[in-house]
From TrEMBL:
Residues 9-18 have a biased composition (Acidic residues). Residues 1-83 are annotated as: Disordered. Keywords: Membrane, Transmembrane, Transmembrane helix. It comes from the Bacteria. This is Discoidin domain-containing protein. The chain crosses the membrane at residues 89-108.
Length: 277
């Protein structure tokens, strides 16, 4: 109340002579302020301090926290790849390389073939004559439709020379190695191409020239008197044969070695023979 005497508890405490003058003291039993207590200050400091800077409690050994190991850091930054995935990637790369190399090889071979293609046949020679070839020494009878031989050089593919009919097999019934037609160029001339017109059924044969290049008449005694300069697998219709090595010759033999089946028999057909330089 206003005007009342203050109690003994509210009286100020006199200064201690041993302390500095002007220091304000409170009674020991006065309640402590929660904002000014030492415990509050320590709690506030611990909130903002780093964990690594904390000091161990008195009487306890200090054990620092080790930094993360290098292996852990590498594992966290770059996880290892599955070895099987690495092998799959390497295998795929090899397959791609093989495909590229293969394609390059195909293009190179095709280019080389195109570059090495021989020139087209020139104008054919005018042939002086033609006759059949069927030596008795080889199993023939010296006659293989001789009257039809000239049809191979008449310029008309609708007319043709044919072999006789053989009823048992394509190899002339096993009687002889072959039969054919010999054409005469009139004199020795360079030859690079032979152009044939065959029948509609696949026929196999060879092109031969005399072993002796300077002969003035065709050797009709045996097939061994002629040497092969070109050959053709079962073929039909228009056939162009290029000689790997051009020859100079007067006579050319088109020699059939396997006949096609025509109806119940085996028979070969040559409609046209052309010889070009």
């Amino acid at each position: 109340m206003f005007g009342s005497r203050p109690s003994a508890d509210d009286e100020p405490v006199e200064d201690d002579p041993g302390e500095p003058t002007g220091a304000l003291h409170h009674r020991a039993d006065a309640p402590a302020s929660p904002w000014g207590s030492p415990d509050h200050e320590e709690a506030t400091q611990s909130i903002w301090s780093d964990v690594d800077d904390e000091e161990p409690a008195p009487g306890q050994p200090y054990t620092p926290i080790p930094p993360p190991s290098e292996q852990l850091r590498v594992s966290e930054q770059a996880p290892s790849r599955d070895p099987s995935r690495r092998w799959q990637g390497a295998l795929l790369a090899l397959v791609v390389i093989a495909l590229v190399v293969g394609l390059v090889g195909v293009f190179v071979n095709q280019f080389n073939r195109t570059s090495a293609m021989p020139a087209a046949p020139q104008q054919a020679y005018v042939l002086a004559g033609a006759r059949d070839f069927d030596p008795s020494a080889d199993g023939g009878d010296d006659r293989e439709n001789p009257d039809l031989a000239q049809l191979t050089i008449d310029g008309n593919p609708a007319t043709a020379w044919t072999t006789e009919r053989y009823g048992r097999s394509a190899d002339f019934n096993g009687r002889k190695p072959g039969a054919g037609v010999v054409v005469d160029l009139g004199e020795p001339k360079p030859v690079s191409w032979i152009v044939l017109t065959l029948g509609d059924a696949p026929t196999t044969g060879e092109v031969r020239v005399p072993v002796q290049a300077d002969v003035t008449s065709p050797p009709l005694d045996a097939a061994s008197s002629w040497r092969r300069v070109a050959s053709f697998e079962p073929s039909t219709g228009h056939v162009q044969l290029h000689l790997d090595r051009p020859v100079t010759t007067r006579f050319v033999l088109v020699y059939l070695t396997a006949l096609p089946r025509v109806g119940p028999n085996y028979q070969g057909t040559i409609a046209e023979i052309q010889v070009t330089p």
